[in-house]
Design brief:
With 233 residues, the chain is an alpha/beta fold. The protein contains 9 helices and 5 strands; from the N terminus they run H-H-H-E-H-E-H-H-E-H-E-H-E-H.
Length: 233
């Protein structure tokens, strides 16, 4: 396992303001019925936007999240559509090729950046799209075989449609039904998987583990709706 891929969520020091924010969130919304990773994603997305409606707007699948969580902590690449998403992911290096991309006939700069990123990372990556619907649309044309697509672009043109296409594709995904979304919530969904504890092996390991520090977020976060798989509206 690479040094970049190895993450110890227990070592994350949680600020008291964040701890209090999650406490208040849980007094206003009961998320206890969600499975662990679904609950983690739902709560952290809501926390990032102060928007309780994400509990019924997000669409997730616990099994897909479990597989993505393993891939992420085994060092799978993380690709983002814009630097604002990258800035929100604080514990993992990311790939963003927007600066290298150019627009052309029938091709936006955001879409070209997705092509360039796929040429760089190949299959098996986690893709985090929080800005451009055309980036998500382009990803769906590629044989990317992603570990997960966090598709939460925002906007009145194409955002809801691109997210519906993501769900129709059958790819492992986190999405939402409405037009809202954005860089902050997309990064939050990825962070939920990064911060969620990794199961420890029962046998000794070669590298030392850091001392555990309590974490305010639940064992997992994900969407609202149904316990194991979110419903679409």
């Amino acid at each position: 396992m690479s040094a970049v891929g190895r993450v110890f969520p227990e070592s994350r020091i949680v600020h008291p303001i964040e701890e209090e924010s999650f406490r208040r969130l849980r007094t206003r919304l009961d998320t206890s019925h969600f499975p662990p990773l679904t609950r983690a994603v739902v709560e952290r997305v809501i926390h990032s936007a102060a928007d309780l409606d994400y509990a019924s707007d997000l669409v997730t699948d616990e099994v897909a999240l479990e597989k993505a969580h393993r891939a992420l902590h085994d060092g799978a690449p993380v690709v983002v559509d814009v630097e604002m998403v990258a800035a929100g992911i604080t514990r993992r290096d990311t790939v963003c090729r927007l600066k290298d991309a150019v627009s052309g006939p029938g091709l936006t700069r955001s879409a070209h950046a997705i092509r360039l990123a796929y040429e760089q990372v190949g299959p098996g990556a986690l893709w985090v799209i929080g800005c451009a619907p055309t980036a998500l649309e382009e990803l769906l044309t590629l044989d990317a075989a992603p570990a997960l697509v966090i598709g939460l672009p925002v906007g009145f043109v194409g955002a809801a449609e691109s997210k519906a296409a993501l769900r129709d594709s059958g790819l492992p995904a986190v999405s939402n039904v409405s037009e809202k979304g954005g860089s902050a919530v997309a990064a939050a969904a990825l962070n939920a998987l990064l911060y969620h504890p990794v199961s420890r092996p029962s046998h000794p390991v070669s590298r030392p583990m850091p001392d555990a520090v309590s974490h305010p977020a639940p064992e997992a976060e994900s969407r609202a709706g149904s316990p194991s798989k979110s419903k679409e509206n």
